[in-house]
């Protein structure tokens, strides 16, 4: 089963489904509402990261419950959407970037399922390259070329970053910055699920932008990109093969020490 974790703009993908069903999934970390969609011959589980109505701020998201809920219903590959700010003047608002690395600057988040034993997950390839390839193969669904690769910096939020923080992120190799990629990507790997991100650039980051940042910018660009993003997601889902193997599904093989 394919999982989609998203928020504003992606919810409308349910309108493309031949059938849909809402289900409450109870996990040991909490209960999560998931929409099960039939798109072509695929079953897709859609999970709104910020809960219904975009009501949950990024630092309060129950990432462990979300990932566990998808795992319990049979999801083995996840495509996530993330709104981000650009650290690169050449990657402007409206761009879509498919990251291949991350920097974790979150602070208080519960970031592992394995608090009861020693598990070391390899993150040499932080995002699933098989899924990344499937996304990039559908770049013709986007209005302009997708940006192949880049490092997404994840901060705690909910505040935006300071100019000094942005300067630091640029120096150490960041490309875009957001608040929702982590620990989501790591938790998915711990559950041996493929995970890739579609990062939608909503604005230039603090001090790069000439204007002060506000949440309304994010909503405005997501509204503009909504149709394009849904088309991209729909075509990716249709093209994903039913039979495949991936290193992500064997992530725990050598992890226990």
TrEMBL record:
Source organism superkingdom: Archaea
Sequence positions that bind substrate: 179
Pfam families documented for this protein: PNP_UDP_1
SUPFAM superfamilies (UniProt xref): Purine and uridine phosphorylases (SSF53167)
Pathway per the UniProt entry: Purine metabolism; purine nucleoside salvage
CC annotations in GO: cytosol
E.C. code: 2.4.2.1
InterPro entries per record: MTAP (IPR010044), Nucleoside_phosphorylase_d (IPR000845), Nucleoside_phosphorylase_sf (IPR035994)
Example of a GO biological process term: purine ribonucleoside salvage
Key word Glycosyltransferase present: yes
Nucleoside phosphorylase domain segment(s): 2-237
Note, other: Although this enzyme belongs to the family of MTA phosphorylases based on sequence homology, it lacks several conserved amino acids in the substrate binding pocket that confer specificity towards MTA.
Cross-referenced PANTHER family: S-METHYL-5'-THIOADENOSINE PHOSPHORYLASE
NCBIfam families with a match to the protein in the record: MTAP, PRK09136.1
Name listed for the protein in its UniProt record: Purine nucleoside phosphorylase
Organism this protein belongs to: Methanobrevibacter olleyae
